[in-house]
Amino acid sequence: MCAPFTDHDVGKAVENEEGEDVGVVASVADGVAYVLPADDAVDSGADADRPRRLRPDSVRAITEETVRLEGGLPPEDEAADAERYRGLEADPIELAGGDGDPVTPDEFSVEPDEDTEPTDAAVEPDDEDDAK
């Protein structure tokens, strides 16, 4: 286990225990490093280009240019998703009351003849003189 990561570690190469390049430190937040995997280090797929959180126990050493791992690049971290969505278990489309179809401007447009009657919240320019 190594010292917490700092902003100085961003951009460092990440190597597995065999010395092979498996990614680069993309960001650091609260002492935790997030690694953008190298193309050949992970299976292709929708999550292949997402940064992965490095657990402190998976890091053997941090040098001036490299982060060396005990093993290989950790798998996609479900805990990171849980932290990101913070327990959200609903479909965002359902929360918005939509049907999944894109919203068109016509659905939310205001016609010029709507709401033409002034309310007590509206101030007409001619009424300002009467208020004095």
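(the above was protein one; protein two follows)
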Amino acid sequence: MQVKYETEATEKENALLLAESELADTRLRQTRIILTITIIAIVVFLIMVVQLIRANNLKKKANTELAQKNTLITEQKKEITDSIQYASRIQNAMLPPGDYLDNLLPERFIIFEPRDIVSGDFYYITEKDGKVICVVADCTGHGVPGAFMSMLGISFLNEIISKHRDLPHSNEILEELRGHVIKSLHQTGKMGESQDGMDLALYIIDMKARKMEFSGANNSLWMFRNGQLIEKKADKMPIGIYGHIDKPFTRHDIDLRIGDMVYAFSDGYYDQFGGPMQKKFMIKNFREMLIQIHNKPVKDQKRIMVETLEQWMADNSQVDDILVVGVRV
């Protein structure tokens, strides 16, 4: 009996030890699993930290490089802008000064609004032999390319008018100017070469004789007399290479009367987008505006035209250089 009891006690003790051993093994496995997971998590975390640090360093480096490039671009832009502004001062210096114009054309207005800092439109007004020569020109392009052409045009006009003892006729000046432009730009009419040039209106006023000559290259002349619009049409060819470069320009001879109002202009004003429908101002509206205001003093005409343009444009950007010259005889 005693032996049986001891045997059972031993078996129970062994079973308990086995259970404790199995529990210990289970706990050990769990500990190993937890340790493994923890190690893996730590490794993953460290990898992520390293990646984040690396990404942050790359981002800082990229931001530094970007900031350096932005600084360089800003400096280069400022240098370019400063150069263009200096070019604008040179271009403006080549235009006739106000006090000089006051003596030649006391009743006049000029609206001159470059789209960029410098302009492809230009006006040229001078005097020779008691006659006033007025040119309103629109060169190919705007901004810097147009400004180069405009300065060429002014230089050539100075040369043409000064070299002749007697002032040439309006059509002769245009033909000489065309020759200078073609020669200086090496234009031959071949495909792919420069097609640059200019459209312009040129008129010569002889106040004593009450006569005016007009010749135009794609830019016509408008004159109001007694409320009626008289249009002198330009030849449909530019100052520059053209299919019929030997074709002469037409000269229009006009008798003037006191009070005649003469307008020459580029296409920038009536090509401006704006209004409620975001459309061009259009030449018909430009004509109607002049019909309404041409009898007003020239200062009032300019004010009305500028205000009308500003209201039409609203928040729109200017699309082209704008030039309008009005002269009361």
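Reviewer note on protein two: The chain has two domains: 1-94, 96-328.
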